[in-house]
Amino acid sequence: MPRYLIISDIDGTLTANHHDVTPKTAAAIAAAVASGASFYVATGRMHALAQVVAKQFEPEASIIASNGAVYDFSGERVHHVLGQGALTAVETVTDQLGLNALYFSDDTVYYTGKVPPAIEAAARKFAPSSVSIDVVALPSVDDLLAHAPAITNGIIFGPHDSEALAKGKAALEAQDVLHVSASEHTNLELIPKHIDKATAVKELQTLTGIGPEQTIAFGDGLNDLGMLKAAGISVAMENAVPQVKQTARYMTDANVDDGVANFLNDFFEK
């Protein structure tokens, strides 16, 4: 049997509630790994929050975090960072549009100013109470820039302001200092320039010697598009956005119906 590289988004794909993997999904992944496959979770989350899901698999899954800006391989962790130019651009645009940005290292959240309660609640849904994440309020943009060497990615939440999000996306793309995507219609994902989940997937294909034709990728959101295009066996969830369904070669059941497990069980059975 050929070796496979299996990569799955987390929210809206691998889990139904952002945190917990069902026994059926865990068993399907374990069976694939026992047959020689390598398994990665691929997420926009910071590394510490990706571990919450990865640790539910035995053997433990590897991690692509921060939308491809961070990934693990052979005991090492690779980092790409947003950089001072991108951070300055985001702070300028969000200030002009009345939006709020959160920035992430592997285990710390940074922000400037005051984050509204609704934004804080939106961010915390990804962090179970069992995980302690440092949240650091910075008094100025200069203080934020001092942490630039550690900041891999960020997010702008706009749960009630889609017009401002659209303007923010256009303004940031025009400056061409970072990559802007989205995991949901309520946010903008801030990623280092020329980086997305596909970057990590392609680098891992080279490192493992497992080509696209043996790469299986699952996703549901816009920030999964590059990853799906890098995989020869690309799978959209039934709950995926239309663009993902149009891009993927296959479709499986929704995340709440163990779609990842159902596809893998059928695929390896055949």
UniProtKB/TrEMBL annotation:
Keywords: Hydrolase. GO terms for cellular component: cytosol. InterPro entries: Cof, HAD-like_sf, HAD-SF_hydro_IIB, HAD_sf. One of its GO terms (molecular function) is magnesium ion binding. The keyword Hydrolase applies. PANTHER family: 5-AMINO-6-(5-PHOSPHO-D-RIBITYLAMINO)URACIL PHOSPHATASE YITU, PHOSPHOSERINE PHOSPHATASE. NCBIfam families: Cof-subfamily, HAD-SF-IIB. This is Predicted hydrolase of the HAD superfamily.
